[in-house]
Amino acid sequence: MTASHAVDVLLDDTLLTLNRAMGVLRRRNVAVQAFTVRPCGPAGVARMTFVLNTDPATADRVVQQFHKIVGVRAVEVTTTPDPITEEQP
Amino acid sequence: MSEIMSGAHILCRTLAEAGVDVLFGYPGGAIMPFYHALPETPSLRHILVRHEQAAAHAADGYARASGRVGVCVATSGPGATNLVTGLATAHMDSSPVVAITGQVSRPMIGRDAFQETDIIGITLPITKQSYLVQDAAELADVVRDALAVAQHGRPGPVLIDVPKDVQNQKVEWTSPDVGAQHAAPLPSAPLPAAGDDAVRRAADLIAAAKRPLMMVGHGVILANAYAEVRALAEKTGMPVITTLLGISAFPEGHPLHLGMPGMHGEVLVNRAIQRADLIVGIGLRFDDRVTGNLAAFAPRAQVVHIDLDRSEIGRNVPTAVGIVGDAANVTRRLVAAVQARTCDDWRAEIEAGRRPSGGSFSGGMSPEAILTAIHDATGGVCTIVTDVGQHQMWVAKLFPYRRPNTHITSGGLGTMGFAVPAAMGVHLARPQERVWAISGDGGFQMNMAEMATMVQEGLTVKLAIFNNGYLGMVRQWQQFFHGKRYSSTPIWSPDYVKLAEAYGIPGYRVQHASEIADVVGQANAAPGPALVEFVIEQEANVYPMIPPGGSLAEPIEAAV
C-alpha cells in the first residue's frame, strides 16, 4: 500500500558522497516528492532528507541501498499514510 | 623519517607497502608521472596489456583467484573509459579491484581539456567508492583506504582518479614505519554478527522440513566457507545446488551435489527447487537467471537467506529467516545448532527424475569430451576461466570441479571477452597451476590481442576456443524465440592456428574427437601460452533452457 516515507540520511558532506547518494535515487527511478540537503551537526556531516510516495517494500529497498554507500552514517525512515486523499465522486 | 616525494612516488610506495605486487595497465599522457616513478619500486610488477579493458578484467581475475585486491592503471579519457566494462563486471560479481586513473591537471578540470573525461561520474553506479585526489598529501591515505574498502564486507571495485599535477606535486611524506598514524589499521565498520535467535529459527526450519535444499553462491567462495557448507550438508543430508558463481564452492561428484539451477540448470535441479519446502540460500542473490519467473519460483518453499549484504535479503524472494553475516561464521553456527538428520527419501525422489544428458555433436566433438580431456591433462589441478555464452554453460554443467574456487567466469554482467584477459590475472595469482581460458569464437575475438601481452610478459595461459561459426547463444535464442532468423550471428574467424603462429605460440586445430586428448595434452604440456581451436557442431544448443521470464517448471528440452 502506498504511503509517504520521509527518509533522513546522515552522511559525509562531500560532493562525491552526495553524488553517489543521488545516484541511488536516480537508478531506481523512484519519484521524489521533496528533497533537501543541508549541513548538520559536526563539521563535515550533511543531512539529506527526501520523501518517497511508494509501497513499503520499495522504500525499504531504497533505504537498504543507502546503507551500503561508503560515507553514509545513519538512515532513518518515518512512514505516514498518504496525506492526500482524493474526493470521491 | 620524513622525506620530500612526488605524488607519483607516494602512489607507488604506498601500493607496494600495502602488499600489492602486480599492476595491469597502459600508460598515457595523464598518468606519465606515475609510470616515470614506477621503475623505482621494483616490487611492483607491471603487466602491459593491449587494451585497458583487459587490465580491468586481469585485475578482476587476479583478485578472484588470489583473494587479494587486483589493481589496474589507465590514463585519463579513453584509457579510463576503456576500464568501464571491467569495473562493471567486477561490481556485479563482487570482486575487489582498485582502478587508478590519471586525470588532467587540476586547473584544466572542467575545461574539456585533451583526454579529459569525468570518469568518476561515469563509474559512480559501478564502483563501491571513488576518490578524486586534490592534494598529494592525501594520496597515501586514499590508497590505503581504497584497498581496504574494496575488500571489506561485500567486495567491489574502487576508483582513484589522480590529476597529473597531483602526481607531480612534491610533499613531505612520512614512512609508515615511523609515523604510527599511517601504520595503524584503517577504522572500518565491524561485520554484522548474526543473532542466536535467527540461527535457532533457521535450525528449526531445517529440522522440520521434508524437502530441504541448500543453494550456495559466490559468497561461499568469498568467505572461504567451503568446510562449513560441506559440514552443514553432511550433517543434514540436504542436497546442494551451486549457482553459476557458486560452482566449485562444493565438490562436484559429492553424493549431495545436485548441480546448477536456473535458466540452463538440469531439469532435476529445477524440479527439486519447485518441490522443495525449504531453501537454505548461502551467499547468493537469487538473481533472475537463477529464479526464472519470481512469481512461480519455489512455490512451496520457505527461504532461509544468509548473506553479508543486508540489501540482498528479501530483495528478490520473500524470506522466512534472513541472516546478515559472513557465510563461514553463520554457517558454522548453523552447523552447531542444527540436529543431525538425513534426507534419503527426498534425495531418492529427486534422483528418480535424473535422465541421461548430452546432445548430438558431429564427429564426437562434444563439450564433454573436450572438458574431460582438459581435466585429465591437468590432473584436475587447474583453474578454468570461461567467457560468456554456450561454452560457458557447457563448462558450468560438465567440468568436474573438485577443488574450491577453480571456476572463474563473468556471471552478473555476462561480459564476452572476459576469459582471455582474466586468465592472465589468474595465472599471476596461481603461477604453479595450469590456467585454461575457454571462449567461444565470438568472445575470443573481442580480446584476442592479449596474446601479445602473454608473450611479452611470459604468462602461461592455455587458450581453448569452441568454434561453431556463430554467436551461439544468441543464435540459440533466435532459433527458439525469433523464428530462426539468424540475424548477424554467423561470425567469421581468422585461421587461429596461423594467428597463434603470428604471435609465436603453438596453435592447434581439432576437428575429430580422436585427436582431442592428444592435442590437449600437447598444449597443456607446452611451456608458455598455447591455443587450441575446437571445431564443434555449428548449431548445437544448450539444453535444457528456461525461457527468459519463464517458470523453472517449464523447460525447453529439445529443438522447436
Number of strands of chain A: 4
Helix content of chain B: 25-40%
Chain pair with largest interface:
A-B, 13 and 16 residues
Shape of chain B: globular
User: Please, how many helices of chain B?
Assistant: 24
Strand order of the largest sheet of chain B: 3-2-4-5-7-6
State the fourth-level CATH superfamily of chain A: ACT domain
CATH class of the largest domain in chain B: Alpha Beta
Radius of gyration of chain B: 24 Å
Order the strands across the largest sheet of chain A as they lie in space.
2-3-1-4
Q: Report on the biggest sheet of chain B.
A: 6 strands, parallel
Task: Describe, in short, the structure shown.
Chain A has helices at residues 15-28, 56-67; strands spanning 3-12, 32-39, 45-54, 72-81. Chain A is of the alpha+beta class and 89 residues long.
Structure notes:
The complex is a heterodimer of chains A (89) and B (560). In chain A, strand 2 (32-39) and strand 3 (45-54) form a beta hairpin. In chain A, 29% of the residues lie in helices and 43% in strands. Chain A is built from 2 helices and 4 strands. Chain A has one domain: 2-Layer Sandwich (Alpha-Beta Plaits), CATH 3.30.70. Chain B has 560 residues and is of the alpha/beta class. Chain B has 3 domains: 2-183, 3-Layer(aba) Sandwich (Rossmann fold), CATH 3.40.50.970; 196-351, 3-Layer(aba) Sandwich (Rossmann fold); 362-535, Thiamin diphosphate (ThDP)-binding fold, Pyr/PP domains (Rossmann fold). Helix content of chain B is 38%, strand content 17%. Chain B is globular and about 70 Å long. Mean pLDDT of chain B is 94; it is low at 178-187. Classes of the chains: A alpha+beta (89), B alpha/beta (560). Chains A and B meet through helix 1 and helix 2 of A and strand 6 of B.
